[in-house]
Amino acid sequence: MAGLAHWLRDYAGALGKIKLALKAAAIAFEQTHAREDFRAAESWAKRSGAGKTWPKLREALRLWDALARKLVAFFGLPWPIEGNA
Questions:
Q1: Sign of dihedral through CA atoms 11, 32, 64, 38?
Q2: CA–CA distance, 46 with 54 (Å, rounded to integer)
Q3: With 30 labelled, which of 10, 21, 39, 50 sits at a CA distance of 20 to 30 A?
């Protein structure tokens, strides 16, 4: 799923579909929890032109990451998810 989100983020961005690229970037982070995907989501949010987009999205992504880490720890599963740091 992360690979498809990465592809869509880049393809949509190249076509100027910023909102779609932003959504795909957020989904990529939700799948990988990788710093580079977090930064990509930040970049697309800031390009979207809506000043309030990034703070709200940043908080949502941080909460998602914290929840995923707690669940992984609770169930004793290996981290990182999908082999990404």
A1: negative
A2: 6
A3: 50
- CA terminus-to-terminus distance, the chain: 16
Other Cβ atoms less than 10 A from the Cβ of 17: the count is 15
Tens digit of pLDDT per residue, the chain (85 long)?
Answer: 899 999 999 999 999 999 999 999 999 999 999 999 999 999 999 998 766 889 999 999 999 999 999 999 999 988 765 544 4
Six-digit token pair at 23? 């959504």
DSSP 21-84: HHHHHHHHHHHH--HHHHHHHHHHHHHT--TTHHHHHHHHHHHHHHHHHHHHHHHT--SSGGG-
| Residue 15, phi then psi, degrees to nearest 5 | -85, 0
> How far apart, in whole angstroms, are the C-alpha atoms of residue 13 and residue 10?
5
